[in-house]
Design goal:
Number of helices: 12
Distance between the termini: 87 Å
Number of strands: 27
Radius of gyration: 30 Å
Strand order of the largest sheet: 1-7-6-5-4
Helix content: 25-40%
Length: 630
Amino acid sequence: MQSLKFSLTWATWQFLAVLLLLLAPSQLWLGEPVWAIEPDRAAQLLGLPVAYLVAVFVTALVFLARRGVRAPVVLGVFATALAGYLLFLLLVDAWYSRGVLLFGSSVFLGLALLPFLHRRLLVPGTLLLVPAALVLGGLGIATSMSERGETDVLPERSVTRSSLYHTLEIDYLRHVEPTIDGGGIDRLGDDFLLVTGEGDFFRYAFVGDSLVADRLPLQVPINRSEFSEAADEDIVTEWFRVAGLLTQEVEGGIRAVVSHHVWHGDQSCYALRFSDIVFDPDEILAGTREASGWRTLHETRPCLPIRDRGNRFAGLEAGGRIAPLGDTALIVSVGDHEFDGWNSDEALAQDPESDYGKTLILPLDGSDPWLFTLGHRNPQGLHVAPNGEIWLSEHGPRHGDELNRLVEGGNYGWPYETHGTEYGELSWPLSGLVGPEDGFVGPEHAWVPSIAPSNLISLEEGGFPAWEDDLILSSLQAQSLFRIRLDEGRVVYAESILVGRRVRDLVEGRDGRILLWGDGGWLASVTVSPDSAEESLVRLCTACHSVEGGEGHGLGPNLAGVFGAEVGSRSGFAYSEALSALGGVWTEERLDAFLRDPVGFAPGTTMIVAGVEDDEERRFLVEYLRDLGD
């Protein structure tokens, strides 16, 4: 009888232990119940209770065979099961949180050993597990039902990526769980503003190394429900979404400009609308002030019908990016929604009376917009560089994705000129129908095979000193960032940096980090790896200069033994006239002045890096150069 009572209690303990392993890691560490977690991540969490059940089964067999089992044997069985689970995570390269893993493993081993330490602990321990399970389950239900307020966004995973000039730290974060892809992210003062594809707004702020999120009481005026009700079963309603976001600091707070689809039920057609709103994030969160009403800046013309062939609603080819032109106007991109003359009768990108397949200038004073460029397919990236150049990235049909430099009035050729092909074909059927005499503008760079470029930025805040003046482009299909090096306006190369997830949008923060927004609701912070900050500074030198003894040179003169050497004295290297005429030797003061402003120190000097502004970074480089021997 005593043995039966122990067996029932032990079985009850193990049942409750499995239940806790299901609930505790996700609820106590991630702050959300296991049933609300994305399926691929939930499957990895489920592996822990599965491993526990396997260990329980093996322990039961040992108990029956030996009519008893000791704690060291139990520890060995459960540790082996846990090791198998950890090996599984390693082999599948799982996107797990290290904190969740450590916490879950500790609970795993504790629940395994406690019943075998002393029989008297089993009954009270079991009684304690019951309310623990109830509390965790209740918390999960409450979390699911409540609106999420300010929360910490916990890191899922951190990886280090090697790139030219910088070693990168990519911290993957998760907070939003959107039902559809799309949306965008932009700077909000020192913080960030995010809008999802559904039109929900979140503010993100870095507090130390932690990211804190607020859900804002704002909603884009997108009538998705009306579109979904009118759509047939073969129409992808998830492509009816918010496509882009721009923020601007204005009197009264922040102006948020979004692009989104709109459905006109009375005409059975849709368009892309650009809407804006002015609000103060702190005041609307505190409830002391409401955001002013949404205003329509522009709605594309004509209103498009649902087609009867191809992708009947190709909302994924909306474009919809927005960039500022000073304080008085915006430039926006509009995709052709597959009205390309092949999947439809009309080639709207070449129709000057249509807004589709174009970039447009939208004055903020409410006056009429005007056409800036035409001949685009799906322009998902738009950026006005500090020097005034306007860059646009767009998807080709199959391959042939493009990077274009926009010139007002330029015709970029789509759908009559492309480096891509039709899906399943060896050519694009409309290529060559219009001759080169029509003056189409070619791309600055094209990708074959496709990378599905999304947005692009240039870096201005100094977080990646060796990348200044480069363009940073994000991609969906390639799941990478591309660092595009320009030389006198010409694309020299595009370095690929693997992210491992589809990147929908990106923005540079005031602290110099790059924040990525990706499909599926994840964020990632990209910074120069703190463990390799000195290594990155050295790369600024070794990228162009040899630092070994001898007379060999790279793009720049050999730096070995430069400290104390005569300025411009290395044989076999052509110095600028100004540097050759300086005379004297390299001292700490001279090296510091040169590193701060090479051109100012010796006009005519050519350096990839314009200068090193940070005093500590220059001090390190001076010491590094001083220590280089012959």
